[in-house]
């Protein structure tokens, strides 16, 4: 069953049960109220009888004169009382209306009157502040028929008609509500089906400003994300194919030249082939690490480590290359505390950032490494001089295979994955890494690391 029909039936059944319960409650309340009103009215009209019975008790000192009588002296007392008020028709009412009365003593034991009918409400008969007996009304079938005839049937008929009107209104409301809610749900189902079919180029907007509009916006956002992911995946596959194709093509050309005799098989040829193989191996290793980061399986061996010494050793190992480019190197890591991390992975980050500077910083430039403390950790800054990175490219530097200048990157042998790997490693340490413009005229890379152990080794 479709949800619109379920909703329609749910509203209709709820309305029916509510109307039925309301009708039963109204009926019960009416009957109880009518009973109280009827009893009160009858006792008011029986006031002369109560006075007469009191006089009899006071005269005789007991109820002995009325003991066992089947009828109380109702006509004489009431006719005399009502006749004084000038109501001629009242002569015939008491004989019909007050047919079942019972006189009870102070212990509510029957003395006179209607012994054969159930006793209902009672009124105390008092003399000098003391209860000397009770006058009780009967609850026989004739009284019940009188209530039904005069009041209950009319009220029930009115209630039934009101219930019918309410149910018709509920039926119409249920139809309109189920229809208004069913339409956007149907549209959402259709759009989700499009998503499952791989169609992400759509924009669905709800008809009203409610939860459906929020859901439609989230659905649009999901479609945009899926569309972007598909485009990124396609671009990723294309870039990887290109990166793999380049060293393979060079290897194939070198080997063909040797096979055709255009190039001798000597040490220079072997070194050239080895260089391309190393480039291919490095690219595959980078891709593998990023795949591990995506799947959450990149392993870390955390411990307290001296990162300052590692950075100084890495700079010293590349001192000759810095000299070749005439780069002025400044390492300002005095009194830097130990950090909590994987020294092997952090060494990768340091080497990638140094390599990035060596590849792209102009000759006779400046390279500076410094640190500063923050609450619970340290922040390291790697800065170099020109060339600067365009503002539009800075947020994209950590994207995979992104190059500010593709031709220059490929010429230097870079794969465009180094900063992406740095981002994955720092993120695995619970730190942050970002890029900005450097005061030296080039690029500033800053990343943070904790100085205290925050979890177990993973």
Task: Write a structural description.
The structure is a single chain. The chain has helices at residues 3-45, 47-60, 74-84, 93-97, 141-196, 211-260, 267-295, 307-317, 319-324, 343-360, 406-412, 418-428; strands at residues 101-104, 110-113, 119-127, 130-138, 303-305, 328-332, 339-341, 366-374, 377-385, 433-437, 441-450. The protein is an alpha+beta fold and 458 residues long. The chain has a five-stranded mixed sheet. The protein has a four-stranded antiparallel sheet with strand order 2-1-4-3, with helices on one face. It has a two-stranded antiparallel sheet with strand order 5-7. β1 and β2 form a beta hairpin. The longest helix has 56 residues, at 141-196. It starts with a helix and ends in an 8-residue tail after the last strand.
In short:
The protein contains twelve helices and eleven strands. The chain has helices at 3-45, 47-60, 74-84, 93-97, 141-196, 211-260, 267-295, 307-317, 319-324, 343-360, 406-412, 418-428, and strands at 101-104, 110-113, 119-127, 130-138, 303-305, 328-332, 339-341, 366-374, 377-385, 433-437, 441-450.
Keywords:
four-stranded antiparallel β-sheet, elongated, 458 residues, alpha+beta, 11 strands
Helix percent band: 55-70%
How much strand? 15-25%
Q: What is the SS-derived class?
A: alpha+beta
Main sheet: strand order: 6-8-9-11-10
Number of helical regions: 12
What is the gyration radius calculated from CA atoms? 50 Å
Termini, distance in Å?
Answer: 50 Å
Task: Give the biggest sheet.
Answer: 5 strands, mixed
Any idea what the shape is?
elongated
The helix/strand series, from N terminus to C terminus, equals HHHHEEEEHHHEHHEEHEEHHEE
How confident is the prediction overall: mean pLDDT?
A: 76
């Amino acid at each position: 069953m479709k949800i619109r029909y379920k909703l329609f039936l749910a509203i209709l059944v709820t309305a029916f049960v509510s109307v039925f319960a309301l009708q039963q409650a109204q009926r019960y309340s009416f009957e109880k109220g009518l009973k109280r009103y009827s009893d009160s009215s009858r006792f008011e009209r029986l006031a002369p009888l109560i006075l007469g019975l009191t006089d009899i008790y006071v005269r005789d000192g007991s109820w002995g004169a009325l003991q066992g009588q089947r009828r109380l002296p109702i006509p004489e007392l009431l006719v005399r009382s009502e006749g004084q008020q000038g109501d001629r028709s009242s002569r015939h009412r008491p004989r019909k209306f007050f047919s079942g009365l019972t006189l009870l003593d102070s212990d509510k034991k029957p003395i006179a009157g209607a012994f054969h009918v159930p006793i209902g409400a009672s009124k105390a008969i008092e003399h000098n502040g003391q209860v000397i007996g009770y006058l009780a009304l009967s609850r026989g079938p004739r009284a019940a028929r009188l209530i039904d005839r005069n009041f209950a049937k009319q009220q029930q008929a009115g209630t039934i008609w009101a219930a019918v009107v309410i149910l018709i209104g509920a039926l119409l409301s249920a139809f309109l509500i189920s229809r208004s809610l069913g339409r956007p749900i149907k549209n959402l189902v259709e759009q989700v089906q499009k998503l499952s079919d791989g169609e992400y180029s759509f924009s669905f907007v709800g008809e009203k400003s409610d939860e459906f509009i929020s859901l439609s916006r989230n659905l649009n956002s999901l479609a945009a994300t899926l569309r972007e992911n598909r485009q990124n995946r396609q671009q990723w596959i294309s870039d990887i194919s290109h990166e793999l194709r380049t060293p393979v093509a060079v290897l194939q050309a070198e080997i063909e030249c040797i096979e055709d005799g255009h190039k001798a098989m000597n040490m220079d040829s072997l070194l050239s082939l080895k260089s391309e193989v190393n480039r291919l191996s490095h690219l595959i290793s980078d891709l593998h690490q990023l795949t591990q980061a995506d799947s959450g399986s990149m392993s870390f061996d955390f411990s307290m480590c001296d990162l300052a010494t590692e950075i100084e050793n890495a700079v010293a190992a590349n001192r000759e290359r810095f000299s070749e480019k005439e780069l002025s190197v400044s390492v300002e890591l005095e009194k830097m505390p130990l950090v909590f991390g994987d020294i092997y992975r952090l060494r990768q980050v340091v080497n990638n950032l140094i390599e990035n500077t060596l590849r792209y910083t102009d000759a006779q430039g400046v390279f500076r490494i410094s640190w500063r403390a923050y609450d619970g950790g340290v922040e390291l800054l790697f800065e170099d001089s020109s060339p600067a990175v365009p503002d539009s490219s800075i947020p994209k530097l950590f994207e995979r295979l992104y190059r500010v200048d593709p031709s220059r990157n490929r010429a230097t042998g870079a794969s465009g994955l180094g900063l992406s790997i740095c981002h994955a490693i720092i993120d695995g340490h619970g730190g942050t890494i970002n890029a900005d413009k450097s005061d030296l005229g080039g690029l500033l890379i800053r990343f943070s690391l904790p100085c205290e152990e925050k979890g177990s080794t993973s």
